[in-house]
Design a protein that fits this description.
heterodimer; A: six-stranded antiparallel sheet; globular
C-alpha cells in the first residue's frame, strides 16, 4: 500500500487544534516535526499567541517580568493558520467541522482539543465585577493584578489558599503589601497535599506576615459608591476592609462549547483513552478527535486506571506530544500517555515540588529532612504502596521517589536514607479533608471507578 | 568479562584510551569481582543512583575498604580537617554547601561568576601572550595549569603578592592526587602533608584578617557569614577552602587540556570555533560528555542493602559510578564515540548529578569556554607534537600531563 490514508493525511490533510496555549502549541510543533505537511489551524479565544502562565502568579506580580513578555518559546516553526481571538462554539462530529464564534466553520480530518481551564469566577456576578476584584488565569489578569499591587493597596484579600492563592499571597508579602488569605479548608494547600503539609504551609504564611484565616468563607463582597471593592464579609461575622480581592477558587474546564456535540465532555473534562483519543457520549472511542492538557481526563495504569485530570504544566506538554504522535501514527505505533503527575510551586522563598498523586494518599512519612526546617521530603502511602511525594526545598531527591511510585514500591518505605530524622521514623495520617467538603480544589482530580470495582452497569458521562 | 578489568582501568598503560574498557564493562552493568567495589557503568543506572537517598558519600559508612584499589587514597584526614561537603551527607552537606553557595551563585550572588569574565579573559590573554617559542609549547604547564590557580586566587581573595607561594602549595597538593609511581611514597606524603599544613596556616591567617576587614572575595564572605545558617567554623572554612582549591583546580586543567586535544584531533571543529566563538558553549558540554575530567566517582556506599538490576549490593559496600562510561552509553546517546559539538541531546554525567553535582560547574564552564575559544582564535595553525600525549597517573581525574603542540605564530 504505497499511499495509505495516513500518508495522505500527512501530505495534505487538515488538522485543527482548538486551544492555542501550551498544549496546543507543543502538539502543533510535534506534528510538524513528524512530517505533517498539510493545513494546520490553531484556534484560540484569547487574542494572543501562546504564552506561559506560571510566571503570571510569580515574577509578574513581583514586577520582575512583564505579563506581555511571557510568550512561549518556539521549538520550531509550525506554519500554522492562526485563528486568534475567536472562540470555538461548537463541534459537528459527523460533518467534521468546528464552529467558530464569528460564524465560520473549520473542517478537519483530525481534531485536537486543548481548550484547558479557566479561573472559577466569584459566584456572585455583580460582586465579581466590582473594580479591584480579580481572578488570575490570563495575561490580562496578571497585568491587571500586577498594576493593582504596584499601586500600593492598603490590603489585599486572597480567597482560596491553593497553589495560585498562596503564590499571590507570597508575592504580596514580598512587595510589602498587607494581605489576608481566607481559606475554607483547615490549611493552605490542604486539598492537594493534606493537613500535615498544610500545617507547614500555614506556618510559612504566618511567618511571612500573611493574615491567614482558615475554616472560613467569604460570604460577600461590598463595593463603594464608585463600584470599587471596599470590604469583604466573612462567615465568622466579621468584615474585612480591603481594596483588592483575588478570587482564587480553582479552575473550570472549558467544555461547554461541546455540549450537544455527542462527545464525552462535561464539567470534569473530556474523557479519553490512554492514547488521548476522545470518548463519545456512549463511551466509544473516536479515532479522529484527540484531547490534551488540562481539559483531558484519561485513565492511568499507576492509579488504578482511574480517570486523571491534571492541571500541570508538564502534563500539558507530555500529553500534547503523545496526542500529536498518535494522531499521525498507525494504530500499532501509538503510545499511551503514562506521565507521572508532577508539579512545582514557589512561595515565600520555598520551592515546592510534588510527584504522583499525593491526594490519593492516606498516610504520609517524612523520609528526609524536617518540617521544622522547611526542608524535607514527604512520601504518601496508599494501601501499602507509595503513591506520591512532596519536597520543600529538597527537590533533588524527587526523581528517586518518582521511580518508587512508578514501580509501586511498598509503603512505608522499608529502607533508611541520608537525612532521616526522628520525625521520619513512622507514617502518620496524611489528613486530607473529606472530599465532599469543597476547598479551592486540588490540581489533580481523580474520577471514575477502577475496572476492578464493578460498581456501575451503565456508562453515563457526567454532565449529560 | 575478562578478569581484572578494574586493574586494567587503573593500569597506566590504558590511560590514553580507557573507553574500550568501559564498553566491556557495560556488558556487566553491575560488576563485582567478589572482593572489590561494585562498579556501575551504564547511564541510566548511574543517573538514578546519583539521586538515590539510600546512597551515602560519607566514607564513615563504608563497612570495609578491602579490595577497593581507590579507597584510602585521600589525604584530607591527614591534617585532621573535618570532611568537606563533598564527603558528607545531608543535613551537614546541605548546610555547608548552602553556605558556600551564598557568596558564589544564585540566588544570593547571581553575578559572581559572570563578573569574573573580564578577569578570566585577562589571565587567558596574558598566558597566551607569554607562550614564547611557538615551536614548543607545553599547553599544560604554560596555560592549562597556571590558569585555574590564578583564577582561584582571585575568587578566594588571595593577595597578588602571595600568589607565588600559593601556587607551590596548590601544585604539590594537586600532584598528590596524581602520584608518580616512581617517586618515594613516604617522601611524597611528607611533602603533601607539609604543603597542606602550610596552606592551612596561610588560609587560617587570611581568614582571621578577613573577619576583621572583609572584602568582596569569597573567603571574606564565607568568614563573615550571614543568612539563616550563620557562619562556618574556622575548621569548616578551611576544609571548604581546600575543597574549592583542589576540586576546582585539577579538574579544570584537565577539561581545558582534554578540550584542546580533542579540538586538535578534530581540526574542522577547531576551524569552526575560530570562526564562531559562540560554539564554545555547546562544545564544552559535548566535551564534558566525551572526555569528562572526572572519570568515575569512587566514594559511594549504600546505607542499606539495595538492589540494582536484580543484584543486591550489600550495605556498606564500596561503589564506583563510572561517569565517563555512562557518557558513552549507546543506550543513551546516539553515536556515543563521536565528538559532535552540535549534538542536541547532551545531558551528560560529566559534572555528576543530584546533590553532589559539581559545585563549581558555572565557573568551570566559563573558564573552559573562554580558554578554548581564545586558543582557537589566537594560535595560528596549531598542531599536536605527540598523540596520544603522556597522561597523568590518575585514573579518576584523568587528563594529559603534558600537551606538546606547535603553531606558526600567535595572532594578536
Amino acid at each position: 500500500m504505497a499511499d495509505s490514508a495516513l500518508d495522505q493525511l500527512k501530505r495534505s490533510g487538515r488538522i485543527v487544534v482548538v486551544g492555542a496555549s501550551l498544549a496546543g502549541l507543543r502538539a502543533a510543533e510535534v506534528m510538524r516535526e513528524k512530517g505533517f505537511a498539510g493545513t494546520l489551524t490553531l484556534i484560540g479565544d484569547e487574542p494572543h499567541e501562546p504564552y506561559d502562565r506560571p510566571p503570571l502568579s510569580k515574577q509578574v506580580l513581583l514586577g520582575k517580568a512583564d505579563a506581555e513578555h511571557t510568550l512561549l518559546p518556539r521549538r520550531r516553526d509550525i506554519e500554522a493558520e492562526w485563528r486568534l481571538g475567536v472562540a470555538a462554539i461548537g463541534l459537528d462530529m459527523a460533518a467534521r467541522t468546528v464552529k467558530l464564534a464569528d460564524g465560520d466553520e473549520v473542517p478537519y480530518d483530525r481534531l485536537l482539543i486543548a481548550t484547558g481551564v479557566r479561573a472559577r469566577p466569584w459566584p456572585n456576578e455583580a460582586e465579581g465585577e466590582l473594580a479591584g476584584v480579580f481572578t488570575l488565569r490570563t495575561r490580562e489578569d496578571g497585568a491587571g493584578l500586577a498594576r493593582a499591587l504596584a499601586a500600593g493597596p492598603r490590603r489585599v484579600l486572597v480567597i482560596g489558599a491553593g497553589f495560585t492563592g498562596s503564590e499571590i499571597a507570597s508575592a504580596c508579602r514580598e512587595r510589602g503589601v498587607d494581605v489576608t488569605v481566607a481559606e475554607r479548608g483547615d490549611a493552605p494547600l490542604v486539598g492537594a497535599l493534606g493537613g500535615v503539609i498544610g500545617a507547614v504551609a500555614a506556618e510559612l504564611h504566618r511567618e511571612n506576615g500573611v493574615d491567614l484565616r482558615t475554616g472560613i468563607m467569604v460570604t460577600g463582597l461590598e463595593g463603594d459608591s464608585s463600584g470599587r471593592v471596599r470590604a469583604a464579609h466573612l462567615s465568622d461575622g466579621t468584615t474585612l476592609e480591603c481594596d483588592v480581592v483575588v478570587v482564587s477558587l480553582g479552575a473550570q474546564r472549558n467544555t461547554e462549547w461541546l455540549t450537544g456535540s455527542g462527545l464525552g465532555a462535561g464539567p470534569r473534562g473530556i474523557a479519553c483513552d490512554a492514547g488521548c483519543r476522545a470518548f463519545d457520549l456512549r463511551g466509544i472511542v473516536t479515532d479522529d478527535i484527540y484531547v490534551a492538557g488540562d481539559v483531558a481526563r484519561s485513565p492511568h495504569a499507576l492509579f488504578g486506571y482511574q480517570f486523571l485530570s491534571l492541571e500541570h504544566w508538564g502534563n500539558a506538554v507530555a500529553q500534547a506530544e503523545t496526542a500529536a504522535h498518535n494522531m499521525l501514527s498507525e494504530s500499532t505505533d501509538r503510545r499511551p500517555h503514562l506521565w507521572v503527575p508532577a508539579f512545582w510551586s514557589s512561595q515565600f522563598g520555598v520551592n515546592i515540588k510534588s510527584v504522583g498523586v499525593p491526594s490519593m494518599g492516606t498516610e504520609i512519612m517524612i523520609t528526609q529532612g524536617s518540617r521544622a526546617e522547611r526542608r524535607f521530603t514527604g512520601v504518601y502511602g496508599y494501601q501499602g504502596r507509595i503513591i506520591g511525594a512532596v519536597t520543600f526545598d529538597n527537590a533533588r531527591w524527587l526523581q528517586f521517589y518518582e521511580r518508587q511510585i512508578e514501580c509501586t514500591a511498598p509503603f512505608p518505605p522499608p529502607f533508611t536514607t541520608v537525612d532521616r530524622r526522628a520525625d521520619g521514623q513512622r507514617p502518620i495520617p496524611a489528613d486530607f479533608p473529606d472530599p465532599s467538603v469543597p476547598t479551592h480544589g486540588p490540581t489533580i482530580t481523580l474520577s471514575g471507578y477502577s475496572p476492578a470495582d464493578r460498581r456501575i452497569a451503565t456508562f453515563t458521562p457526567a454532565g449529560h | 568479562m575478562s578478569h581484572g578489568i578494574l586493574s586494567q582501568i587503573l593500569d597506566y598503560a590504558n590511560r590514553a584510551n580507557p573507553y574500550p574498557l568501559y564498553e566491556e564493562l557495560r556488558r556487566t552493568p553491575v560488576f563485582h569481582d567478589g572482593t572489590g567495589p561494585y562498579v556501575i557503568s551504564t547511564y541510566f543506572d548511574i543517573q538514578s543512583l546519583l539521586h538515590d537517598p539510600r546512597l551515602s558519600s560519607d566514607s564513615r559508612n563504608l563497612a570495609a575498604t578491602a579490595g577497593d584499589p581507590l579507597a584510602g587514597g585521600e589525604q584530607e584526614e591527614a591534617t585532621a580537617l573535618p570532611p568537606s561537603f563533598l564527603k558528607l551527607d545531608p543535613p551537614e552537606h546541605d548546610r555547608l554547601r548552602r553556605m558556600t553557595n551564598r557568596p558564589f551563585g544564585p540566588p544570593h550572588s547571581p553575578y559572581r561568576v559572570d563578573g569574573m569574565r573580564g578577569g578570566l579573559k585577562d589571565i587567558v590573554t596574558g598566558l597566551i601572550d607569554n607562550l614564547g617559542d611557538t615551536e614548543r609549547i607545553d599547553l599544560v604547564d604554560q596555560f592549562a595549569y597556571p590558569f585555574p590557580v590564578t583564577m582561584i586566587c582571585q575568587l578566594l581573595g588571595v593577595p597578588r603578592e602571595d600568589e607565588a607561594r600559593f601556587h607551590v602549595w596548590a601544585d604539590t597538593l594537586a600532584a598528590s592526587l596524581d602520584p608518580d609511581p616512581d617517586s618515594d611514597p613516604a617522601e611524597r606524603q611528607r611533602k603533601t602533608h607539609d604543603s597542606r599544613m602550610e596552606l592551612g596556616m596561610y588560609l587560617a591567617g587570611l581568614i582571621e584578617e578577613r573577619r576583621k576587614d572583609p572584602g568582596e572575595d569569597m573567603l571574606s564572605q564565607l568568614a563573615v557569614g550571614h543568612g539563616p545558617d550563620d557562619s562556618m567554623s574556622t575548621m569548616e572554612l578551611l576544609s571548604t577552602a581546600a575543597l574549592l582549591l583542589i576540586a576546582g583546580h585539577e579538574t579544570t586543567v584537565n577539561l581545558i587540556t582534554n578540550g584542546m586535544l580533542t579540538l586538535l584531533r578534530n581540526p574542522d571543529v577547531l576551524q569552526q570555533l575560530r570562526r564562531e566563538p559562540g560554539l564554545a558553549v555547546p562544545l564544552v558540554e559535548e566535551l564534558l560528555r566525551f572526555e569528562p575530567p572526572v572519570q568515575l566517582l569512587p566514594q559511594r556506599t549504600p546505607l542499606v542493602d539495595i538492589e540494582v538490576r536484580g543484584i543486591t549490593i550489600p550495605k556498606g559496600s564500596s561503589m564506583w559510578l563510572i561517569l565517563a562510561s555512562g557518557n558513552r552509553d549507546p543506550n543513551r546517546f546516539e553515536n556515543p564515540d563521536r565528538f559532535d559539538p552540535h549534538r542536541k541531546d547532551v545531558q551528560h554525567l560529566g559534572l555528576g548529578s543530584g546533590i553532589h553535582s559539581c559545585f563549581g560547574a558555572p565557573l568551570a564552564r566559563l573558564e573552559a569556554q573562554l580558554a578554548l575559544s581564545e586558543l582557537a582564535r589566537r594560535l595560528e595553525n596549531p598542531r599536536l607534537l605527540e598523540d596520544p600525549p603522556p597522561y597523568r597517573q590518575n585514573a579518576v581525574l584523568r587528563g594529559p600531563r603534558h600537551l606538546r603542540i606547535a603553531c606558526d605564530g600567535i595572532r594578536p
